[in-house]
Design a protein that fits this description.
Number of strands: 0
Radius of gyration: 15 Å
Oligomer: single chain
Largest sheet: none
Structural class: mainly alpha
Strand content: under 5%
Distance between the termini: 36 Å
């Protein structure tokens, strides 16, 4: 599992091929559900509503991000299937899931607020694997890679803030 944390595209090639991208969204959906749960626990918001928002953003929101990435690399000349790109993007958030679990353990065992220290850190850690996936899709075009990763980073953090009434 550790090797897939740094290269989620490999997981798709080895295990999820033919099963569809939906399986990959189990990871991103759970990751964002737990991340949004951390935010709710830290702020005293509704836990159930936070879980629903996290699941929806981790599935639908990340699917939209994957579709935007796919469209961009398609314009740049790559003909990879939409489902493969969406699955790889969703699996990039495996590290977010790990950080969210650690954050919840720290919250419940030590009473710490962990949405920023573990939640945001987990989201940011996803950009390493995602950058690797995008680099492969763009043919190592660094400028395009940086643009896509930066845009997706802004998209994810902006929607997290908006969905949690922080802006």
């Amino acid at each position: 599992m550790i090797k897939y944390l740094f290269n989620p595209a490999k997981l798709i090639q080895e295990n999820l091929e033919g099963k569809g991208a939906w399986a990959a969204f189990l990871f991103s959906g759970l990751a964002f559900a737990l991340f949004f749960l951390q935010t709710a626990l830290d702020s005293g918001s509704s836990v159930l509503f936070a879980l629903v928002k996290g699941i929806l953003f981790g599935t639908v929101g990340i699917a939209i991000a994957g579709a935007l990435i796919w469209q961009t690399v398609k314009i740049a000349g790559n003909s990879i299937a939409l489902g493969s790109v969406m699955g790889a993007v969703a699996l990039s958030y495996t590290s977010t899931l790990v950080f969210a679990v650690v954050g919840l353990i720290l919250h419940f065992s030590l009473g710490w607020n962990t949405a920023i220290s573990c939640g945001i850190t987990g989201v940011l850690s996803a950009f390493g694997p995602m950058s690797g996936v995008i680099a492969g899709l763009t043919g190592q075009k660094r400028t395009l890679n940086i643009f896509i990763v930066t845009f997706i980073g802004i998209y994810v953090l902006l929607f997290w803030a908006l969905l949690n009434n922080m802006l």
